[in-house]
Write a structure and sequence with these properties.
Layout (H helix, E strand, L loop, with lengths): L1 E5 L4 H12 L3 E6 L2 H8 L1 H4 L3 E4 L8 H8 L7 E4 L13 H21 L8 E7 L12 E4 L10 H17 L5 E7 L1 E3 L5 H10 L3 E4 L5 E6 H13 L8 E5 L3 E4 H12 L4 E4 L1 H18 L7 H7 L2 E4 L2 H7 L7 H7 L3
Parallel strand pairs: 1-2, 1-4, 2-3, 4-5, 5-7, 6-14, 7-11, 8-10, 9-13
Antiparallel strand pairs: 10-12
Helix pairs in contact: 1-8, 5-6, 9-13
Length: 339
C-alpha cells in the first residue's frame, strides 16, 4: 500500500518506518530533517523511502502540498505519530503542547485536503496516549482503563491528546476513510528511555513511592507499538466502524513487582518509601520552583495522585479485533539487558 508516515525521526516513528519498508509498502515520510531520518534508519532503508521535507507547524505549508500533489497515485494509509510534550501542570506550556499534538494533526489533514489525497485514503492512524483519558474517576485506589471509561483530562498534555482525538472523531463522519486512535501508555525499549532511568533509580534504592499505596505503571514495549501499528494497517477490513479508539498496553506493573524484577536481574534494588503528606508538600514546592524557572516540573500533584493508584489497563478490545499477541514484557526485556 501507499503509506504516509509523519514523525519518522521520532522514537517510535523510526522503527515503524523500518517495519513498513520491510513489509514492502510504498512508504512516504514527512521529515523536517532528511539527514536525521537517514541517520536514524540507515541509508539502506532510507533509499527505499520517498522523503518529503517539511514542517507541519510551518506558517507556509505550500511546499508540502506541492510535494504530495506530485506523488504518483493516491494514498491508502496515513500514520500520524507527531506529538508529545511534558506532563506539566504549568499552563505557560499549554500553547506549545497544543500545537505539537492538535495543530500538527489538523494541519496534516488540511495538507491532505489541499493536495487531494484524502479521496483515496482507506485508513488514518493516530498515535494518542493513555494520558488522553486523564485520571478516570474511581471510588478507591483501583482505576480501570478501557475504551468505555469516561475520560477526565486535566493537564495540558492530557487535554491536547483528547482534543486531537475529538477533532479526528468529527472528521471521521465527514470522509469515507476509517480512523483509528491508538492510546499507548509509557513506551520502553529504547536506549536511555524513561523506563530504564527508573530502573537505575530502583537499582540504587532511590526510587520514591508513597508509603501505604500500591501504585502501578502501565507499559508497552516499542516492538509491540510497531507490531500493533502494523496489525491495524494489515487488517483494515477488521475495523468495525469509521472511528475506533483502542488501548494498547501489555499491562500494568506495581512498583513492588518492578523492584522484584530489578533485584532478580541486578542483584540489588529498592524503593524510597515516603509519607503521602511529605510527598505532596514536596511536589507542591517543586511545581512552584519550576514555574518560577520557566521549566516543566519533574512531578506535579496531579501526577502524584495517579502514581498512588493501581491502574488496571484492559486492552481486550484491541486484542480481540486484531487477534494480537504481545511479543515483549518487562521481565523478559530486563533479562535481556547487560548486567
Amino acid at each position: 500500500m501507499n503509506v504516509l508516515l509523519t514523525g519518522a525521526t521520532g522514537f517510535a516513528g523510526t522503527s515503524i518506518a523500518r517495519e513498513l519498508v520491510e513489509q514492502g509498502h510504498n512508504l512516504y515520510v514527512i521529515a523536517r530533517d532528511e539527514k536525521k531520518f537517514r541517520a536514524n534508519v540507515g541509508d539502506s532503508c532510507a533509499d527505499r523511502v520517498n522523503i518529503l521535507t517539511g514542517d507541519l507547524l510551518a506558517a507556509d505549508r505550500g511546499n508540502l502540498v506541492k510535494q504530495l500533489e506530485n506523488l504518483p497515485g493516491g494514498l491508502d494509509v496515513v500514520v500520524q505519530t507527531v506529538g508529545g510534550g511534558p506532563l506539566t501542570s504549568n499552563q505557560a506550556f499549554a500553547p506549545g503542547i497544543f500545537d505539537l499534538n492538535c495543530k500538527t494533526t489538523s494541519n496534516l489533514v488540511e495538507i491532505l485536503e489541499s493536495s487531494h489525497k484524502l479521496q483515496s485514503l482507506r485508513l488514518f492512524v493516530y498515535f494518542s496516549s493513555l494520558a488522553a483519558m486523564g485520571l478516570p474517576k474511581s471510588t478507591g485506589d483501583r482505576v480501570q482503563y478501557n475504551e468505555t471509561v469516561v475520560c477526565n483530562p486535566v493537564l495540558p498534555y492530557e487535554r491536547a491528546k483528547f482534543e486531537a482525538e475529538t477533532y479526528l472523531q468529527g472528521l471521521a463522519g465527514k470522509h469515507g476513510f476509517k480512523t483509528v486512535v491508538l492510546r499507548y501508555p509509557q513506551i520502553y525499549g529504547g536506549p536511555g528511555d524513561a523506563f530504564m532511568q527508573m530502573v537505575g533509580m530502583i537499582q540504587s534504592g532511590r526510587f520514591p513511592v508513597v508509603r501505604g499505596k500500591i501504585g502501578s505503571l502501565p507499559l508497552v514495549h516499542l516492538r509491540d507499538v510497531v507490531g500493533s501499528t502494523s496489525a491495524v494497517i494489515q487488517n483494515v477490513d477488521q475495523i468495525p466502524s469509521n472511528f475506533e479508539v483502542y488501548i494498547v498496553a501489555e499491562g500494568s506493573y506495581t512498583y513492588s513487582q518492578l523492584v522484584e524484577m530489578v533485584r532478580s536481574k541486578y542483584g540489588r534494588g529498592g524503593m524510597l518509601s515516603v509519607p503521602y503528606f511529605v510527598t505532596y508538600l514536596g511536589t507542591a514546592a517543586l511545581e512552584r520552583a519550576f514555574a518560577l524557572m520557566g521549566k516543566p516540573e519533574p512531578l506535579n500533584r496531579r501526577r502524584l495522585v495517579s502514581l498512588t493508584k493501581d491502574r488496571v489497563v484492559d486492552c481486550s478490545k484491541f486484542i480481540n479485533t486484531f487477534q494480537f499477541k504481545f511479543s515483549e514484557n518487562v521481565r523478559t526485556y530486563l533479562a535481556s539487558q547487560p548486567a
